């Protein structure tokens, strides 16, 4: 059984992003980039399924610039068996990535596709759902537990009222939530081993996919600066201010 895992190269979660002065986007010059944290969880889950003997091959896919190779090497250092880079310099929106992944699902025929629930750069939370629709596959989003046996995946999801458990027939699409697992540290020997694993590069056109953006970003702006807080002398003043100034009680 094969698992396809989508890994996106994003601005590292520790970096404080800066908006470009012309408001056209986020400044990516000299910024540390890493694998999207939810995708690390996705790779870890796929590798754990392989370690349990449920899965035989873990294939990592990344779409974007040539440097996404580094993201794929990290996935292979965690334990993915091979990588596919769908290389393009074009701006990629979730629909384009979902179309690329659909083409790869057709080609690779995985039993399970695992994606992060959202990319921390665009915060779209769309790609997994779009892929499931395009490929006509069952989906379970925001997974906090995944069990695979006998051609089905049993997925626990964290929903507002508690936990929901779904049973999906494979092949299926699963997206990861934060509590699914804690990804392992990547060790130096595994980084060295990952360098020798196969990495194939294709272009979106080779897969017959047009990745032209369908949505235009009009402007990107920093959030408004928060004004400084004040100290109140006692509870009575606090309650009065909440009533008359903040008008929240
Ligand atoms: P999004 O819908 O953009 O929030 O992304 C959700 C998930 O889709 C991510 O966590 C990744 O697993 C996958 N994904 C999105 N963009 C890419 C990309 N360029 N390359 C590989 N995977 C991606």
Secondary structure layout plus pairing:
Layout: E1 2-6, E2 9-11, E3 33-35, H1 37-51, E4 57-64, H2 68-78, E5 82-87, H3 94-108, E6 112-116, H4 127-135, E7 139-149, E8 152-159, E9 162-169, E10 172-176, H5 188-195, E11 199-202, H6 235-244
Parallel strand pairs: 1-4, 1-6, 4-5, 5-11, 6-10, 7-10
Antiparallel strand pairs: 2-3, 7-8, 8-9
Helix pairs in contact: 2-5, 3-4
The structure holds adenosine monophosphate.
Adenosine monophosphate (AMP) binds next to helix 1, strand 4, helix 3, strand 6 and helix 4.
The computed structural class is alpha/beta
Give the number of DSSP strands. Answer: 11
The major sheet is characterized as: 9 strands, mixed
In the CATH scheme, what's the topology name? Rossmann fold
Key descriptive features of the protein:
11 strands; Rossmann fold; binds adenosine monophosphate; alpha/beta; two-stranded antiparallel sheet
Task: Summarize this entry quickly.
This protein is α/β, with parallel strands linked by helices and 249 residues long.
């Amino acid at each position: 059984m094969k698992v396809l895992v989508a890994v996106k190269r994003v601005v590292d979660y520790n970096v404080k992003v800066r908006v470009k002065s012309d408001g056209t986007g986020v400044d990516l010059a000299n910024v540390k980039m890493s694998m999207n944290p939810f995708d690390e969880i996705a790779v870890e889950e796929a590798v754990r399924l392989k370690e349990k003997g449920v899965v035989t091959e873990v294939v990592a896919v990344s779409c974007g610039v040539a440097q996404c190779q580094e993201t794929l090497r990290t996935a292979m250092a965690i334990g993915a068996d091979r990588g596919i880079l769908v290389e393009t310099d074009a701006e990629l929106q979730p629909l384009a990535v979902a179309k690329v992944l659909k083409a790869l699902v057709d080609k690779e025929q995985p039993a399970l596709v695992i994606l992060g629930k959202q990319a921390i750069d665009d915060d779209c939370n769309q790609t997994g759902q779009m892929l499931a629709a395009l490929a006509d596959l069952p989906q379970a989003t925001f997974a906090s537990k995944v069990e695979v046996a006998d051609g089905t995946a049993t997925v626990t999801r964290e929903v507002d009222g508690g936990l929901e458990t779904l049973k999906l027939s494979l092949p299926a699409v699963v997206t990861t939530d934060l509590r699914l697992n804690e990804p392992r540290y990547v060790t130096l020997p595994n980084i060295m081993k990952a360098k020798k694993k196969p990495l194939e590069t294709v272009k979106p056109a080779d897969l017959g996919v047009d990745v032209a953006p369908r949505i235009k970003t009009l402007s990107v702006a920093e959030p408004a600066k928060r004004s400084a807080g004040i100290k109140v002398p006692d509870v009575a003043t606090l309650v009065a201010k909440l009533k008359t100034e903040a008008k929240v009680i």
